[in-house]
Amino acid sequence: MEKSKEHIVHVGCDRGLCHQAVGRQDKQLNTYDWLADVPGNPYTTDLVEVQFKHTRKGYYHNVNNLDLKKGDIVAVEASPGHDIGVVTLTGRLVKLQLKKVNIKSPDDIKRIYRIARENDIQKWREAQAREHSTMIESRKIAKGLGLDMKIGDVEYQGDGNKAIFYYIADERVDFRQLIKDLAQAFHVRIEMKQIGARQEAGRIGGTGPCGRELCCATWMKNFSSVSTNAARFQDISLNPQKLAGMCAKLKCCLNYEVDDYVEAGKQLPGKDIILQTQDGDYHLFKNDILAGLCTYSTDKNIAANCETITAERAKTIIEMNKRGEKPVSLTHDEGKKAEPKPHIDLAGGDISRFDKAKKKKKKKKNKPNNNRQPNDKKEAKDAK
């Protein structure tokens, strides 16, 4: 009789969580593949996500049905020649990523040639080693031509036949002569790609004031415009130094919660409305938008005799003022007496207890015990 097979429980890296799903966080815009341990997921589509230097990604067809996993180095189709990249995603989630990057034309999706060989990787490493020196030299050439632009990064293609120059410019730049000079200096095909300040920060990376890695370098693929109205809706001080990110633009995170603040702000009374009570008139000093609390002051310009009430209470007083009525105070209506606040004794008891003299306890003297029987002969003899 055959022995029954034991059920094997896979844990940790055996389940693919280290290699396929999470992987090392050494790639920017890393996507967590929560379908990695689903059987047959990599074979649902032949589309594969491949990442190159920093935040540049591409999507390719696995026409040769290679057994690709996250972290594999592959040679992909390029124009001209081939490029070298790292597989960062396979399976169903690649289709969702295509929708995010808005790739609709099938011509934008090229082919994966093969898993990179030893000589492919060697050429790739040599090309990467030339990138920094090429960037420094290209900046000198651009400065010599008097162009108002900044070359922020250089990326060589995997086979070393092409170089992408990423630049930032506020205005239109005529770099036709620059391309000729760069091609003559480096003997490669030149491609100029303009990026914004936010994209440059994403390519370089860094740590934000929140203590976490920059969003543009970890997960953000599309950048929406950020205005100062986002800070106003959230009642944030308009301090340029605090509102600006590493890219010297307004922080992208100002847009994360602005919709919640706008909806919560609709429940608060207007800022110009004055609350009239029998104690006096109160002006709005500040709001706690998410908590729904309003702080009012008797002075319009400074904080004086501040009272904090809920937005519902403020609306009730506004309705009373429209009817010509005035409550006793912000917190109490007419006919309701304000209950005195209970006194809290921080000392924990009567403070006069320290003035009382402590009674000294008298020590008891040892009295002789006449009923005690003598225990030894000496005591018995002395007793006679």
UniProtKB/TrEMBL annotation:
One of its GO terms (cellular component) is cytoplasm. Residues 356-367 have a biased composition (Basic residues). Residues 110-195 form the PSP1 C-terminal domain. Pfam families: PSP1. Residues 322-384 are annotated as: Disordered. Residues 322-344, 374-384 have a biased composition (Basic and acidic residues). This is Cell fate regulator YaaT, PSP1 superfamily (Controls sporulation, competence, biofilm development). The lineage of its organism: Bacteria, Pseudomonadati, Bacteroidota, Bacteroidia, Bacteroidales.
